[in-house]
Amino acid sequence: MISPNGIAHIQLTVRDVAASRPFYYRLLHETFGMAVQYDVPGQVFYCIGARTGVLIRPAAPEHCDTAFDQWRVGLHHFRFRMRSREDVEALHESMRDFGAKIIRAPEIGSWAPDYYSTLFEDPDGIRIEGVFIPGSGNLDRIKDAPLAPVG
Q: Is residue 142 within 8 Å of residue 149, measured between CB atoms?
């Protein structure tokens, strides 16, 4: 069995990189302190740090008018793991102050014990969550569980 070491990066397709860049610059560079790796106007914006990377690229011209739909095949949302409840609150404040669409202010959820998260959208409606779960969260529940069969 191979045990991956997380996800190296996620690449998102956006309708307009120029319109999305200020949002991702605020989120990734200013709020999270990630380094800007590539910044090619209108073509690519990529930040790395905290053992991850997020890259945005433009949609193909024939898809630039297609709205994001989290219920289609593909990405539903993605989540950043925060180190504290205070980090979740600071993330919410940063995105709110920037003018991002806030779906859910920080609150306790039922996905894991003491699950505390906030949810917001990028300019295309891609949902991004910030979560803090004390300890190992649901990983405590599965670490000793047998592997489920595939297929």
A: no
Chain centroid offset of residue 73 CA: 18
pTM, two decimals, is 0.86
80-123 confidence digits (pLDDT tens) = 999 999 999 999 999 999 999 999 999 999 888 899 999 999 99
76-143 folds as: 2,3-Dihydroxybiphenyl 1,2-Dioxygenase; domain 1 (3.10.180)
Q: How far apart are CA 92 and CA 104, in angstroms?
A: 9
What is residue 28's DSSP assignment? Answer: I
Contact in structure between 136 and 78 (CB atoms under 8 Å):
no
CATH architecture of 1-61: Roll (3.10)
Cα distance between residue 138 and residue 151, in whole Å? 23
Residues in Cβ contact with 139 at an 8 Å cutoff, skipping those fewer than 6 apart: none
One fold for 1-61 and 76-143:
yes
Place of tokens 């120029």: 18
